[in-house]
Specification:
With 132 residues, this protein is mainly α. It contains 5 helices and no strands. The two termini are 17 Å apart.
Length: 132
């Protein structure tokens, strides 16, 4: 694929992942009350999930800013992202929360965004390993 041939592709995707973790973490922590009221997702859940994104962003930034990208670190990011996606859908399907339509849309939209990032990271890693 032509876009994976760019030497900075994987690093760029990791940095975008870092930025989205920070942005979503801020939304879910600082805006937990408002987001909870709009989506019917419990404020405590939003706050906890949002807070978990800050150390995640730090890890991804650490992996992205190494002189040489470390495949094990990238695998950790990819698997963590797919875990977040799975957890998001299990949350909706498990009946532990009762979000409204906007809440369901919020959970699905962020899960899809994370899945896309994970897939791009996986593609970039696979390309990197093929070149090695």
């Amino acid at each position: 694929m032509f876009f994976t041939d760019r030497p900075d592709f994987l690093r760029t995707v990791l940095l975008v992942d870092t930025a989205t973790c920070i942005a979503t973490g801020l939304l879910m922590t600082l805006g937990a009350k408002l987001v909870g009221e709009l989506t019917h997702i419990p404020t405590g859940l939003l706050m906890s999930a949002g807070l978990s994104l800050f150390p995640t962003a730090a890890l991804i930034a650490f992996v992205a800013t190494r002189r040489t990208l470390w495949p094990a670190g990238i695998w950790l990011v990819v698997l963590g992202n797919f875990g977040w996606v799975a957890g998001s859908f299990l949350l909706l399907l498990g009946g532990t929360i009762a979000p409204n339509v906007l809440g369901i849309t919020f959970v699905i939209a962020q899960a899809v965004a994370v899945a896309v990032l994970a897939e791009l990271e996986f593609i970039g890693l696979r390309h990197k390993l093929a070149l090695a």
